[in-house]
Amino acid sequence: MRKKSKFHLLGIIGYPLRQSMSPILHNYWMNKNSLNGYYVPLELNNLKNINKAIKAMNFTGLNVTIPYKKSIIKYLDKIDEDAEKLEAVNTIVNKKGKLIGYNTDTIGFQKGLKNLKKWNKNLPVLVIGAGGAAEAIIYSLCKIKIKKIYLMNRTIGKAKKIGLKYKNIKIIRWLERDFVDDFSMIINTTSLGMIGYPKLPISLKETNKDTIVYDIVYNPLKTPFIKEAEKNNMDTIKGLEMFLEQAKESFGLWFNKHPKIDTQILKLIKNKIEKQ
Ligand code: ATR
Hints:
Blueprint: E1 8-14, H1 22-32, E2 37-43, H2 50-56, E3 59-64, E4 78-79, H3 81-86, E5 91-95, E6 98-102, H4 105-112, E7 125-128, H5 132-143, E8 149-152, H6 156-165, E9 169-172, E10 185-188, E11 212-215, H7 224-231, E12 236-237, H8 239-255, H9 263-275
Parallel strand pairs: 1-2, 1-3, 4-6, 7-8, 7-10, 8-9, 10-11, 11-12
Antiparallel strand pairs: 3-5, 5-6
């Protein structure tokens, strides 16, 4: 008799999750890779007992998103080196009953840059936001040797905390505009612009047209910030790129397989986002 393949339970922890495309994407990839399993959204309002719960339900792995990328750490058994440095986890692997935390946002961000035609890395980069995703991006920017990073966040204390950990970061006040530098890239890492949130209150009117605008929000596909950049003929990177790339890495950590971003799943995701 043929042995039944293992059933894999996977999921995403966050709040809110109504905007997340991870379930549709990972369920599609499991199916395409002939894996038996199901990926579920876990919209939680606290993380109490999460370590025990994941083990009791024998999850193979999980993703972690807003607002738990940092607060999940104390509930895990081990943290990978990069995630530990960043103090942010977006992927959990259940390795023989031990919950290990990883961060695939760093690789997701870097792969999102792959289609850029030109990028003057000698000019500074402006990062907006200081949450878990922001730090993963700053970590990547330092790795690719960006010389100067400006960082602004509504809660300045969070930006200052990141500023202490990385060289070449200059903290500026929320929405401050009186700095002199031109930026090679402006990156929105906040939730602003996402469905259900106000738009990012930053105008690109006086921004150099060679500046690349990267918005990690993928829901809607084009945030008001991206739309303004396109209107100004600026190069843009939309959040869907980074989302798909980080997801590919997470899938690889769980199954050691490299899923494909094919036209069918792209269409499914884009349709779902547009209907929201
Ligand atoms: P993630 O781990 O995905 O980065 P997070 O840690 O909750 O999620 O961070 C969300 C980011 O969006 C933070 O920079 C947050 O700013 P604060 O640190 O001041 O909370 C930012 N953000 C969310 N809502 C915002 C709003 N209404 N105005 C300005 N910034 C906002």
